[in-house]
């Protein structure tokens, strides 16, 4: 019986040894995988800016008297928004398009984002931009006019965001 017991003990030790080795391999594999993942920044946002229309306040203005505020949100995966001091280009384009008709008296309003680059390893940023437009006007001969504002931004790597369009703004006589 001692021969069978010795064989059984050897089998148990062998099985236990394989189990311990498998646990060690699994532990080492998991540790290696976690180490590699820690080296790569996790990106939730694309490096190309993404904007979404939020609001236009108010929805009706008096020509030449009231200003309006366009509000949109942004997300950028590498945080390269805004221009450095001395850069004379614009990185926000707002086009005033009347009745949604392209090239019929379109007016372009240039704006600039402040220089933004967050500290740390992850450069992802998101937020909201509020642009004020003053001195709105009606086209000649109209009692009231309707404007739609088309907005796009550009980052420092020259990647353009998607284009968004505001809800209509009605411009009335003062």
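^ Assign residues to that structure.
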């Amino acid at each position: 019986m001692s021969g069978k017991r010795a064989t059984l003990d050897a089998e148990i030790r062998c099985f236990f040894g394989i189990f311990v080795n498998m646990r060690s391999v699994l532990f080492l594999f998991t540790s290696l995988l976690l180490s590699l993942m820690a080296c790569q920044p996790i990106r939730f946002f694309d490096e190309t800016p993404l904007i979404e229309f939020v609001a236009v306040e108010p929805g009706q203005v008096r020509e030449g008297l009231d200003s309006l505020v366009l509000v949109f949100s942004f997300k950028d995966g590498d945080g390269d928004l805004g221009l450095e001091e001395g850069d004379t280009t614009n990185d926000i384009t707002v086009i005033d398009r009347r009745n949604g008709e392209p090239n019929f008296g379109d007016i372009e309003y240039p704006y600039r984002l402040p220089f933004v680059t967050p500290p740390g390893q992850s450069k992802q940023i998101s937020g909201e931009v509020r642009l004020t437009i003053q001195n709105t006007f009606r086209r000649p001969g109209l009692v009231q006019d309707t404007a739609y504002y088309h907005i796009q931004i550009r980052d420092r790597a020259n990647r353009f965001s998607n284009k968004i369009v505001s809800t209509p703004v009605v411009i009335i006589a003062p």
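The chain has a mean pLDDT of 81.
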